[in-house]
Amino acid sequence: MSRETKLIRKPTEIPSEDYYVSGHRTCAGCGPALGYRLVLKAAGAKTVVLGPTGCMYVANGHQFLSSPYAVPWYHTQLGAGGPAGIGTAAALRSLMFKGKRKKEDVNVIVYGGDGGFADIGLSGLSMGLTYDYSRLLYLLYDNESYANTGVQASSTTPFGSSTTFTPSGKVKPIGNERLKKDMALIAAAHPSIGYVATACVSYPVDLVNKVRKALNSGRPSLVQLLTPCPKGWAFPPEETVEIGRTAVNTGMWVLWEYENGHFHLTTKPNPRKKIREYVTKQGRFAHLWENEAALEYLQLSVDSQWKYWDEMDETGKIILPWTPSFNQ
Amino acid sequence: MSKTSQVSVQKSVQKRRVWTGARAVAEAVKLADVDVIAAYPIRPYTGIMNSLATMIAGGDFYAEYLVCDSEHSQFEVVKHASAVGARTFVGSSGTGLIYGTEAVITTALGQLPVVGVVGCRSLDDPGNFGMEWNDAFLFRDVGWLMNWSKDPQEALEMTLVAYRIAEDERVLLPHFVALDGATITHVASPVIPPKKELVDRFLPPYKQPHPLDPSYDTVSKAMHIAPSLIGPEQRKSLDAAIKRAKNVVIPEAWKAWSDITGKDVDPYFESMKMEDADYALVSMGAYSRNVDYIVEKLRETGVKVGSLRLKYFRPFPTEELKNILKDVKGVGVIDFSFSLGSPGNGSVLSNEVKTALYDAENRPILMDFIFAGGREMTLTELENSTKQLIESVKNGRVDKPVRWVTVRGDDE
Hints:
- The structure holds two protein chains of two kinds.
- Chain A is of the alpha/beta class.
- Chain A has helices spanning 31-43, 55-58, 81-97, 114-120, 122-129, 183-188, 204-215, 230-233, 240-249, 275-279, 292-315; strands at residues 47-52, 73-76, 107-113, 136-142, 195-200, 221-226, 256-259, 262-265.
- Chain A has one domain (11-315): Rossmann fold (3-Layer(aba) Sandwich).
- An eight-stranded mixed β-sheet of chain A has the order 2-1-3-4-6-5-7-8, with helices on both faces.
- In chain A, a hairpin with a 2-residue loop joins β7 (256-259) and β8.
- The relative contact order of chain A is 0.13.
- Chain B is of the alpha/beta class.
- Chain B has helices at residues 3-12, 21-31, 46-57, 71-84, 94-99, 101-109, 134-137, 152-167, 196-202, 227-261, 288-300, 318-324, 348-356, 379-395; strands spanning 17-19, 36-39, 64-67, 88-92, 115-120, 145-148, 175-180, 189-191, 220-221, 269-272, 279-283, 305-310, 312-314, 330-335, 365-370, 402-404.
- Chain B has a seven-stranded mixed β-sheet with strand order 3-2-4-5-7-6-13, sandwiched between helices. A six-stranded mixed β-sheet of chain B has the order 10-12-11-14-15-16, with helices on both faces.
- The interface between A and B is large, with 49 and 47 residues.
- β2 of chain A pairs parallel with β9 of chain B.
């Protein structure tokens, strides 16, 4: 079974074969759908995909008995991404070991959202990350809310974002007051994990390479993929890729990888653009556009976290980026 | 039984062991060469997983053994392993089982033949380890097959037969095997395990018809599809499958088991002195042996009472039950469950028995003796209950059809 990771350098090297094809009804400009397509291109035909409940379950079927998946796919419950991956990988290993199935490399990818992995399924995901199944990738597509049910806050929703559970009002002007949970760092806290990375759909070459490194790492892995969401973030659908780039260029979203105990940044925006540029492009932050205190805090939180990211990049070691709270 | 078949039986059995129910089920799992096992601790079923872990660590057989973070994960692991084509084993008890509910239910909807054990335990005034059936009964409506064992020997056999029934292409439904907590899970009694080659003849390999495996085909399973398109048909396919199990596959499987072991096993009932009975005590599980004892005792005094033990709760053997009870005058249900606010404020099993007898030609008097709450049943209580049934039949009416037998103080 091969361990050689085929990395690419430019977009034209991305395979032309698609395993996520027509037959879905995602929104125009859907970031998670774009991610799906790229991730499966990177993984190839010998792949089983599991889809916890979320946009990428609900919007990928419905009404016409259609399916966009050209590889085996099975739904799993919202909180079941972790054990679904483990059950599938365990079955394949057991059947191969006992000679009930041909021995070969099969990828198992669980394509789950931030609600599924960061909230309700965190415990099961953590269980999955402690095992030793190779070619098992937990792909967390992070659109920073429960977009499918009408955009409710999750624990990866950024500070200041307005959602239907965290609207801005007279008494609570900020919207979501919680800071975004760093799932990739939590994944990295599992000592035997194969590979951890963050990625963004606006950087397809980087994403393809990270998926391949993860699948080839010999252990369960996690890639947290920022997938801008026109519906949930309130921006025009043609701007998905641009919003993702702005997230990275302003430092709101940090691209890094953690491999064999070594951390490094894979993109270093220098100089970082101001947060205001990111925030003013999205309706979910519209209530903050005139709120200088909140915008200042958002900039401060990003700047203070970046001190840690830079230090991590220099030392190659993970340090937890502590962030002062808004009220402090 | 002919002489040659007696010889073949002698050859097919191993020597007698003394095993708890937990150990006996673990032996069944080993004999069935299960591929994937998912464990999470909760008493009293845990002993099964302890035994399996020891067997696997010691190299007795190979299976992927997953130590999970919750019952929800446990049931998800086996659901997905079963979808790939692995034979699986899982189990739980009490509130643990309830924690896994979502996964338990979708396993049936996915028509995945997972076999699980319920070590029946009360729900869950904290620390109540008593035996109660409500944990398993919560899944009575969702397409899981369920049988109730009476001792470790039967727990072993029911587990093996469960795999054959569940994995039959005419069924493809998950299967619970219920072991009364403590009384079966933890009490050791003689067990004669079948030999491996006999089990191999009885139990064909599991063949998932549409495995989730790229070497098979592109399967998209459990798509999000408008309920108006397939919702009723999804339920109906489970309904058809459980009826096929009831009418064809379960009787077939137990006939095959009888043939291969030389035993004569009725799939749905074990009855004692029912042939001429005026009064029937209907029970399930371990305490049916107490019922048998009381029946024998009262028979000595000339009372025509019989014991009828129900082996399957799902599918419920309605016609068969009606037929066996057609000539009895009074039925007492010995029940370890409750169903608060239900019709007649009865318990789960008694309500089921009552429903089954609704259109019987001669409806017997029915009394519901509730032993819920985890307090141990005494033989005196059981005997008094039986006498109350007899008295009601003699009076031609029941003053109090539902009795909480083990309750101290008023039974309002």
